[in-house]
Amino acid sequence: MAYADFTPKTLLQEAQDGMGFRIWDDSVWNGESGITTICFVTVFFVNDDEEIIEYDPYELIVGIDKTKFDEYLDRDGHIINIADLTIDGAAADDRFEDGYYVIRVSYSEGSYVAGNEPLYDNNQSFLALNRCMKRKMSILLIWPLTDAIYRLNRDIFLQGLYLELAENAVDTGLTVQFRAIMALIKAMYNNYEIEECW
Amino acid sequence: MAFTITQTDFDNMVLMIAYHQVRIGIVTVALRGQGDPDAWRREEELMMLQNIINALRDYDVTDDYLTYENIQYLNELSKIIISNCPISS
């Protein structure tokens, strides 16, 4: 029996160290979550050349074990570490590279033809490295406020704004604008010679 | 150098900076309302404190991206900014 009235949706949050993310369900199930027997999370990374790197599907239901799926349904969510992910069967990098991601969750209770099951694509920016670098930027501040420190203070403040802007660009599917904003953010770090955190 | 601050102490430290930032913010709001040109300087201090808070907030002290010296420096800098505002001393 296929889902009768199910609107999938997910929420997620990247870890500060870029080594994983927490994902949790925000679907409208109308009482149908219990019939789910197959649930995959698939990560797609869209790099700066617009090439898509597809991670291998990650099972939230392993056989009859629904532990991960139950965590996912709970507001606390399920944590997916990059160490648990593979690309074409090979281990992924140590951390998620900052950039534009699509996190797809697909659901089935067994009756759907592969590729036709309900799914939700969550456009998401992963910016852990850039956020960490912004923390380090504040260490450049000194007292008293001279003209130069005033400009630095303002630039640090604006860097936070631009990071938010980049996230909003991804949330609203503005990929070209996301690249432009990220180029400015990187230029700012270069200008102030901020070292990468990892 | 080994990290010598607990997460609880660290979080409380950030909370105290935020507390004083609010106090300065209230003064700034009043100055702006009166059209006082000194509001500009207070706003710069608020922005500086916000930059410090943003650098520290939600930071996990078991990570090593910020050194203990970095954290001490930002805390000391915040105290200087706060003490510069007449109402906070």
Q: What would the keywords be for this entry?
A:
heterodimer; A: 198 residues; alpha+beta; 3-stranded antiparallel beta sheet; 4 helices; elongated; B: 89 residues; mainly alpha
Computed Rg of chain B? 14 Å
Q: Alpha-carbon distance between the termini of chain A?
A: 48 Å
- Number of helical segments of chain B? 3
Number of helices, where a helix is a run of at least 4 consecutive DSSP H or I residues of chain A: 4
- Overall pLDDT of chain A: 96
Q: Which structural class should the secondary elements of chain B be placed in?
A: mainly alpha
Summarize the entry for a quick read.
Chain A is an alpha+beta fold. Chain A contains four helices and ten strands. Chain A has helices at residues 67-73, 128-137, 147-171, 175-191, and strands spanning 10-14, 20-25, 38-46, 52-54, 58-59, 78-81, 86-87, 90-91, 99-108, 119-126.
Provide a descriptive summary of the structure in words:
The complex is a heterodimer of chains A (198) and B (89). Helices cover 30% and strands 26% of the residues of chain A. Chain A is an alpha+beta fold and 198 residues long. In chain A, strands 3, 4, 5, 9 and 10 form a five-stranded antiparallel β-sheet that branches. In chain A, strands 1-2-6 form a three-stranded antiparallel β-sheet. In chain A, strands 7-8 form a two-stranded antiparallel sheet. Chain B contains three helices and no strands. Chain B has helices at 7-34, 39-56, 68-84. In chain B, helix 1 runs antiparallel to helix 2 (39-56) and helix 2 runs antiparallel to helix 3 (68-84). The model of chain B has no long low-confidence stretch (mean pLDDT 91). Chain B has one domain. Chain B is mainly α. The longest helix of chain B has 28 residues, at 7-34.
